[in-house]
């Protein structure tokens, strides 16, 4: 009888000790608010590709990564200015016509990760302080930047760059005076 009571208590104790987390892992994603929950990974393929893109940009070799950018998308933005793939490539090259010593990690390391959302969307997100020395003003500048790249497979199909353009505008204006 003691063995039966012990066995029943053990089954009750261990049978009721299931973690709610285990149940939630197998549950379908909650899409109530658009499915914007998910996981982040700073070592994903997309994060690695974004690091390569950022390195090629600072080196002045942005066209080396042109194959990573979709030819078909029209969703590339610098603040509220839409550009196509060629416009993005040219803008990145143009930064080196205006500034020397361009860096994304001079002030602090780049914060970069990739988010895989429950709705299937995959975004590589980075925020950092862009620095450079104006070729026309001679000024050292620092600009806070956030950018996000949406991936489909191994291609960037959307890019959003957010920053205050006033220091770029000042350098452009100075370049026109010479």
Characterization of the model:
This protein has five helices and eight strands, in the order ααβαββαβββββα. Strand 5 and strand 6 (122-134) form a beta hairpin. The longest helix has 15 residues, at 45-59. The protein is α+β, with helices and mostly antiparallel strands. The protein starts with a helix and ends with a helix. It has helices spanning 2-15, 20-26, 45-59, 85-98, 166-177, and strands spanning 38-41, 76-78, 81-83, 99-103, 111-117, 122-134, 140-152, 155-163. The chain is elongated and about 65 Å long. Helices cover 35% and strands 32% of the residues. Strands 1, 2, 3, 4, 5, 6, 7 and 8 form an eight-stranded mixed beta sheet that branches.
In brief:
The chain is α+β, with helices and mostly antiparallel strands. The protein has helices at 2-15, 20-26, 45-59, 85-98, 166-177; strands at 38-41, 76-78, 81-83, 99-103, 111-117, 122-134, 140-152, 155-163. The chain is built from five helices and eight strands, in the order H-H-E-H-E-E-H-E-E-E-E-E-H.
Described by strand count, sense and barrel closure, the largest sheet is: 8 strands, mixed
User: What is the number of strand segments?
Assistant: 8
**Average predicted local confidence, pLDDT:** 88
Helix residue percentage? 25-40%
Poorly predicted ranges: 4-14, 19-24
**% residues in beta strands:** 25-35%
Q: Based on helices, strands and strand pairing, what is the structural class?
A: alpha+beta
Number of helices: 5
What is the first-to-last residue Cα distance? 99 Å
What letter string, H or E per element, gives the SSE order?
HHEHEEHEEEEEH
**Gross geometry:** elongated
Gyration radius (Cα, Å) is 24 Å
